[in-house]
Every structure is written in structure tokens, then in C-alpha cells.
Amino acid sequence: MSATATRKTLAVMVLIPVVAALALWAFAWPAARIAPRDLPIGVAGPATATAPLEQRLADHDGAFEVHRYDSEAAARTAIEDRVVYGAVVITPQGPRLLTASAASPVVAGLLREAVTAQAPAGAQVTVTDVVPAPAGDPRGSAFGASLFPLVLAGAASGIVVTVLQLRRGRAALALIGAATLAGIVGVSLGHSWLGALTGDWWAEAGVLGLTVLAIGATIAGLAALVGKPGIGVGALLMVLLGNPFSGVASAPELLPAPAGALGQWLPPGAGGTALRSVAFFGGAGAGSALLVLGIWAAAGLTALLLGERRDRTAGAAAAAPAPVPAPSPAPVG
Fold first, then answer.
1. Cα separation, 122 vs 305, whole angstroms
2. Model-level pTM?
3. Which residues are CB-neighbours of 170 under 8 A, at least 6 positions away?
4. What distances in angstroms separate CA 56 from CA 83, 152, 217, 220, 241, one per listed residue?
């Protein structure tokens, strides 16, 4: 066996376990450390009545971010606007819990357990689901499982465009067209067939398409700038980090730091947040997530065009004829 073949064999033997370890860390670590971390919840009612509850919540150091509201109506509005995941309302008849299982069935269950455990002895906690999960997906299983196929579709579009060596407008058109069709197909399945999405059909399709475009354009743009290693870097960001750090199956505030925050700055996490907002909350809270998706998509397409321009410039320089040296003057004499 030649030295080159030996090095390649050793590289494969080392690289595959490293990738496997990285994938296990990225997927298993957040799932094994699910717990509330600055989880925004509301407390409503007279200040004298809510003070003991606020103190008990504060005793869970770093677990909850408590928002104070004067009335139940204000707390409901905050839930519908995606400011908080739920709220505890203190009434003369006892505490009432407002949840939003559409925002996260996991968080809704966690709040139900936490508030019930901290209620005074003998107190009956009434639970109201202000924004319930759809009947077709009451536990959010289909919604949580919908992200990974989108990530794969986006990554595949960027890789295929690179492998087929599409250039300039053709590459951009292929990415945009693939993302548009992927969004339509995704909503046809998730909304029209499974009933896991209940918002505006075209808004949902737009979010899904923009998510696929942001992922595909990023991978294609990186490949255009740095070559084949760009595909690996893009796949690492989107598949091995973006997907498990997205918090779609639970909530970003339940993931360990910095996974939850980092995931919202990557297209998979931003796409999941934007889709949940348009599907169940009329678009409330989708602004920052859509901005993140737009920045990734624009940056990827720009990198794609810049990389191709660099290649054309380099190719033109290589094809230019070498200068012909001037003839030497004839000797005198």
C-alpha cells in the first residue's frame, strides 16, 4: 500500500469516529439537559397576593423570567403575543394557570407540574389552554419532526447546485425555485394533510421556503467561496448544530447554554420559531426569526455570486496570453 493510500485510510478511520462523537454530542447533550432557563412566564393579580408566588419562582435560580401583569386579560394578551409561555393568575377562588400548548407542549406540561406542586395545600389549580395545539397534532410530535426534513432539503439543494456546477443566475434561480416548491410541498403535507399547522397557508409556505433557501444558499455560497470544504462547513452548521440546537421539539429556553441562544441565530432554529408564530399565533413574535432567515439567505446568495465572479476573474487571468518579449537590438559592429 502506498503512503498516500495509507494516509487516506487513516484519515477515514479517524474522521468517522470524530464525526460520530460530534453528532452524538450535538443531539444527545441538549436532550439530556432539558430544564427551564430564564423561561418567560407571567404572574397576574394583586401585588400582595402574587408576591409569595413570585418569591417561590425566584427561588429557582435562573429557571424563570417572571413578567408581572395587573390582570388576567393582560396575561392572556402576553401569551398570544408570544411574550410569555404561560401565566399564573391569583384569584380569590385560588390560582389559575394559563398555558399555550401551541407554543410548546413540553413547556405547558412543565408549567402545569410546577404550579400544581407549588400551590397551597388543598388548592385546586384550574388550567386554561389559551392557544391550544392543533387537534391533528396535540403533542406537537409532527411539528417537532418537520424541521429535520427541511434542513435536509436545504442542504441537498446547496450541494446539488454545487455538484452540477450551476453558475450565476442559474444557481440562484435553482435555489429559489427548489425552496419555493419545498415550501409548498411541506405545507401541503403539514397543513392540508396532517393538520399539524393551522395558520395562513401561504404564510406557512413562505416561512418553509425561506428556511430551505437560507440553508441551501449558505452551503452553495460557502462552496463557491472556499471550494468543497465549504460544503462540509455548511453541513456542520445546519445539520449537526442548527437542527439539535433549534429547540423546535421543546423550546429554546429549555436547552443548555449556549445551545438555545445559538440555535436561534441559525436558520433551522429561526425557521422553527417563525413557523410556530405564523402557524398558531397569527405571526406574533416572528419578526426577529424572519430577519435571521433573510440575512442568511441574502448572505448565501451574495457569497455564491462573489465566488463565481472570483472564479471568472481567475479563469480570465489564466487564459490571457503571455506577453511576448521585445526583440533584442541587433549587435553593432
1. 67
2. 0.87
3. none
4. 21, 43, 47, 50, 35
